[in-house]
User: Fold this.
Amino acid sequence: MPNFYATTPIYYVNDRPHIGHAYTTVLTDVLTRYHKLFGYDAFFMTGVDEHGQKVQKAAATRGISPQQHVDEYSEHFRNLWPKLNIDYGYFIRTTDDYHKKFVQDSLQVLYDKGEIYSKEYSGWYSVGEERFFEESELVDGKDPISGRAVEWLCEKNYFFKMSKYQQRLIDYINENPNWILPDFRRNEVLGFLKKPLNDLCISRPKSRLAWGIPIPFDEEFVTYVWVDALENYISGVKDRKHKDGSPFWPADFHIIGKDILTTHCIYWPTIIMAMGWELPKHVLAHGWWLIDGSKMSKTSGTGVNPMDYVDTYGVDVFRYFLIREMVVGLDATFAHDSFVRRINSDLANDLGNGLNRIHKLTLTNFDGKIPAPVESGEQEAELLSYSQKATQFAKENIGEAKLSLVVEEILNSVKALNRYLEITAPWKLAKSTEQKDKDKLATVLYTGAEVLRIAISLLSPIMPQKMEQGRLMLGAGDGPLKGGEVLGKGEALFPRIQEEKE
Ligand code: MSP
Assistant:
C-alpha cells in the first residue's frame, strides 16, 4: 500500500476562520480522500499557529492572556472542520509542549553546528509594522506603509546562515522541476533566488515580543514565529508511522496559498538542509479567492460571505463549488451567480436528474432491483468508455491536484449518460410489450446505474455525504454492479436553487 502524508498551513489564531482557511483545508481533505480512494494509506495534518506578534496583539486587544486567547480561538478552527466534512488525521497546536521542545532542540543543534550566529543590527524600526526599514525605503522620514514615525533601534539578534544554502537550493529546484507546483510558482521562486539571499533573523528580543518559544541558548530571546511554525510539519508526526511501519516524514505535499511561497520554498528547505533532514516531496501553492475582484476573505461590500453558503446550501455543494471553480494555482472569484449556475447545472440538472431517472425507472419496472444487462452493444461500450476515461484521468491527475479538470471529466460521463437516456428513451421502452424492448430496458438501466455508480464513487472525496446517499440509492457496494442490488429510498440529492424573481 503506497503512503501519503499532506499538510495544510497552520492558521494564525488572531482571527476567526474564513474562506481562505476553509479552501486550503477542503483542498487538502479532498486530495487526501482521493489518495485513500486509490488505495493509499493517506493522512493529513492541520492545526494552528499560536505564537508571534499577531496573536500577542489580538490577545492584548481583548485584554486577556495570550494562552487564554489561543485556547479559545484554536477551538474556532477545530470546531469548524467537522462542519466542513474535514477528515484530518491530526490537529497540531504550536503551544503544545512536545512541539516547543522539538523547536528548541533543533535550534540548539543548529547553534552547536555553527549555523546560527548573533549580530548587532541597527535600522529604522516601525512599531506599527513591526519591522525594520532601510533609510532609502522611508518616505519623508516615516514608515512607507503606515506613514507613522519610525525610531532608530540598535538590537542584537540571532541569524541563521540561510545564504550559505542558496546555490544548493537553486540546484535542487532545477533538478526537481516538480518540487514546486504549479510551474509558474517555481519560476517565481527561482526569480527571487537570482538576488543574493540574506541570512534569516530567527530571534525576537523578549522586550519586544514575549509570546514565543524561548531560544534555548539565550533567555533574552524568543524564536521567530515562522521557524516555530514550519517545524510543525515534522514535530506533529515524529512519533507516528504509516501502516507499513515507515515514518511520515518527508511529507508528500505541503498545500499552501501563494502568499506563503517564500517561507515554504526558501526558509523551510534551507533550515531542513542545515538540519540534515529530508526535503518534502512537493509544495503546492494555490491562488486567492476574490470577492468582487478584491482579496476579500470575509463579507464583501455586496454582503457575500462565502462561509454563509455552508449553512444556506449545504456543506457538500459548497465543497463542490470550491473544487470545481478554482483551477489550482490561479485566483478564482466567489460570486453568487456562478455558485447558483454551477450547482443548478452540474448537480441539479446533470447528476441529480440522471440519478432520479435511473432510480425511478428501476423502481417502477424492476421492482426496485437493478436489472442484469441482457445485451451490451456499441452504445453501452461508448457510454462506459466515458467512465473509464474519468477514472483513468482522476488517477493520473490527482498527483498534481488538477481537480477542476478531474471534476469536468466525471461530469462528462454524467452528461453522456443523460444523452444516452435521451437516445434510448427507456420511458418509451417501458411501455412496450415486446421482449426485445424489455431486454433493452434492462440493459439501459443497468448501464446507466453503473455509470452513475462510478461517477458517485469518483465524486465522493469532494461530496462525501451526498455521494454516500447516492450510493445507497443505487444499492451499490464496493465493486461494479452485478444486477440484483436493492435500491435505497429515492431522494432529491440536489434541489435546484430557486432565485427570487425581482
Ligand atoms: N500561520 C501562517 C502559516 C504558517 S504554515 C507553517 C499563515 N496563516 S494564515 O492564517 O494567515 O493563512 C493561512 C492560509 O490561508 C494561507 O495559505 C493563505 O494563502 C490562505 N488564505 C487566506 N486568505 C485567502 C483567500 N482569500 N483565498 C485563498 N486563500 C487565502 O499564513
